[in-house]
Amino acid sequence: GPAALLTLTEPGLAEVEKHIDDDADLLEYELNAYKIDQTKIRHDELAQLATARMLKDGSVVDYTTEAMAAAKSQNLVKQHDIVWTLKDGTRRGIEVELSAKWQRKLDQFVLSCLLSIKDKRVDEVCIVTDAKAIRKRYTEAFTPGAKFGKWEKNDRGFWTLAGSYAVPEYADKVICLLLE
Question: How large is the C-alpha radius of gyration of the chain?
């Protein structure tokens, strides 16, 4: 992760806000560094680095972060970490994965990514990781024809396996990228 974490002071935040024309661009900002989720710092840093690289080389022309999308979202639909708009207009949902998901969490992640493409919220999904083993795991999980679990809550509120799905052919729109 980063060597240091800097946050704005109240006067610094006020200065930034003076230069924002559209109220929709105002996002919640945590001034107290101790309230920032320390477990997400490396995750968010990787998301920012990948986005900056793609903007710099010109392959991405616009982006929407999870926080930006959540501020405008009215429903409880899964938000990607970032959505990149590519030069050709393709909308690519970015998922930064620094640890492997297992069983129900992996199955629900696969389903939510596939539904994001099926429901046309994005045209494709890119899973970005810094570990070869995680890239291999997700590449296998999204292989067309692979099985993944269908999970439901039972009458006591516990998750139970209630069958399986097969990964559809359009899962070829899910790519796994290794950032080194």
Answer: 18
Element (H, E) at 106: helix 103-118
Q: Cβ distance 171 to 142 under 8 Å?
A: yes
Dihedral over alpha carbons 95, 118, 123, 111 (to 10 degrees): 10
Q: What is the pTM of this model?
A: 0.81
Phi and psi torsions of 62, nearest 5°: -160, 165
Record the tokens describing residue 180, joined without a space: 């080194």
Distance, CA of 87 to CA of 85 (rounded, Å):
7
Residue for token pair 């101790």? 34
Q: How far apart are CA 159 and CA 153, in angstroms?
A: 4
β-strand 147-153 against 82-86: which pairing, if any?
Answer: unpaired
State the pLDDT confidence band at 9, using cuts at 50, 70 and 90: confident
pLDDT at 29 exceeding the cut of 80: no
Tens of pLDDT, residue by residue over 105-126, are 999 999 999 999 999 999 999 9
Q: Which of 143, 142, 160 has the alpha carbon at shortest distance from 152?
A: 160
CA dist 24 and 64 (Å) reads 12
Q: What are phi and psi of 154, to 5 degrees?
A: -85, -175
Measured in whole angstroms, the distance separating CA 85 from the mean position of its chain's CA atoms is 14
Q: Which amino acid is at 165?
A: Y
Amino acid at site 39: T
